[in-house]
Write a structure and sequence with these properties.
Elements: E1 8-12, E2 23-26, E3 32-41, E4 44-48, E5 54-58, H1 64-73, E6 78-88, E7 99-112, E8 118-131, E9 137-149, E10 156-169, E11 175-188, E12 194-199, H2 209-213, E13 220-221, E14 227-228
Antiparallel strand pairs: 1-6, 2-3, 3-4, 4-5, 6-7, 7-10, 8-9, 8-11, 9-13, 10-11, 11-12, 13-14
Length: 242
């Protein structure tokens, strides 16, 4: 993906083979079917009996135990987008002319390709800024949300982040500040395993997930996603007309 693209899109296919065991399936009317899970076909679950007979069970009619079982053995195929908009922050009439603040709004959108309900996943999203002088990164905003996919929401869920991008001229007339530069979104299953990951920052790989999730919004960090010292001179929040 292009490093500076504002819209990220990644598709994760079913990961590896699905382990299926012989078990008793029950629908909400109490009917029972013995067999192993084979695959999803539209909104139906195909179960194969010991004799080889195929049963097509509507997912919406399965017992809670059966849907929990499927959630554990199937990694749903998802698509993730991150959309950003930027607008100038309303400032005081006393704000300095060389002090610019923008409000950056990011929306993480996750779509479930399988057309059956799912509420076993969640997403974590991060908005990142970059220091104009040192090149260090700063976490501008972070958030997480449980994902619920239903027919009513067309199997797509979303949540919003908001951060500030700011730059200004210092006493040496050097432009300083931190501007928004990118995002990262992780989708996790109920076991806290990453099932999807998208970013426009090439250095934020899946193996750095635990590091970036430990960062606070006032932290600066490097490409290792480990915290680094705040660039000097320190940014003042006491400038006139914030």
């Amino acid at each position: 993906m292009k490093k500076h693209c504002l819209v990220g899109l990644i598709v994760l296919l079913l990961a590896g083979s699905v382990f299926a065991e012989m078990r008793i399936w029950r629908d909400q009317a109490g009917r029972q079917y013995e067999g192993t899970f084979s695959k999803m076909i539209g909104k139906d679950v195909m179960v194969v009996s010991p004799s080889g007979k195929k049963h097509y069970l509507p997912y919406s009619n399965l017992s809670e135990g059966d849907t929990d079982y499927l959630s554990d053995i199937i990694v749903p195929e998802t698509e993730v987008r991150f959309l950003t908009t930027k607008k100038a922050k309303v400032r005081s009439k006393n704000a300095l002319a060389d002090d610019f603040v923008s409000i950056v709004t990011g929306v993480a959108q996750v779509r479930l390709n399988a057309k059956h309900p799912n509420d076993t996943m969640r997403a974590e999203a991060y908005m990142v800024g970059k220091d104009r002088v040192t090149g260090k990164y700063k976490l501008l905003s972070k958030g997480s949300s449980a994902l619920k996919f239903t027919e009513e929401n067309e199997y797509q869920d979303a949540f919003q982040l908001v951060g500030e991008s700011r730059y200004f001229g210092d006493y040496n007339r050097e432009v300083r500040g931190v501007e928004y530069c990118g995002y990262v979104v992780f989708v996790l299953n109920r076991k806290n395993e990453i099932v999807n990951h998208t970013t426009n920052l090439s250095f934020v790989t899946e193996d750095k997930f635990e590091r970036i999730r430990q960062l606070q919004t006032w932290f600066f960090f490097g490409e290792s996603c480990k915290r680094v010292s705040t660039p000097r001179p320190a940014y003042s929040v006491n400038r006139v007309g914030i």
